[in-house]
Amino acid sequence: MAENIEQYIIEQASKVFKTTDVQIVKRLEGGMSNYTYVISADGRKYTYRVPGQNAEEFVNREEELAHIQAVESLNLNNRTVYFDVKSGEKAAEYVEGTILSQTDNVSRYDAQSAAALHKLHSSNVVLKPYAAFDRLARYEQLCREQHHVFHDGYKTCVDRLQAMRPAYESLPQVPCHCDYQPTNLVVGKDRFYVLDWEFAGMNDPYYDIACYGNVSMPAAESLLAAYLGRTPGADDLKRLYFHRTYQCLQWYNVAIFKDGVGLSRALNMDFNQIALMFLGFATDLMAKIDQLA
Fold first, then answer.
1. Tens-place pLDDT, residues 172-219
2. For the chain, does the N or the C end have fewer beta carbons within 10 angstroms?
């Protein structure tokens, strides 16, 4: 589908919006699993998402739709106008504004980002449990089915996280976005937007802050300070690094699965190297945790 994705989106959006006036504006970057484009339909802009190959292995679309509906009252997300749980295709109103991942200093928006997190985390919204380690085990099994041999150092990182796991799983779980990285955050003309709730679930609030590590750990630490309203202590940083290490191992598995099913060649993107990058990040974070012990 990759070669004809734009034409496919035009055809699908024409059916969804019941118009022949559909145009591709641009593709949105970010993520490893979806093709998301900004389109124009009858002169109005929308985003249209088509999940990539095997994306259904990592996201339950019925849960995603339920979560989108659950957080609607919080006025954080943009409005979803079409959602097909079978295909995972989704259309939503396009948000004009500043995407935080495209700024030269994401930390200048820490106050707004932290306020959005407090609004979500303190709400009475109930989501499905994120169940991070059950998810990781499922991803590992998918990789084993592709006969993947995990790289040196992976099992050591997982074992160390498993040893730390009880201390953090006993903490209160709150509604979380679980992919709260700056590519999903937009400062709009009217308010701050939190987009793309594919991975939402009940989780430790520090998990959302750790997602900022996708930009850099200093960015995550800066957001943590804004969220707490104080300088993070050693225990705060260990908790942050724990969750970011987990995230790196999660995306490691996603990357090696994609390599295993042939997407490195199909998309001209070396997912094996991406996996090794995430494993390197995880190893470095473990060293940071050791320094704080």
1. 999 999 999 999 999 999 999 999 999 999 999 999 999 999 999 999
2. C
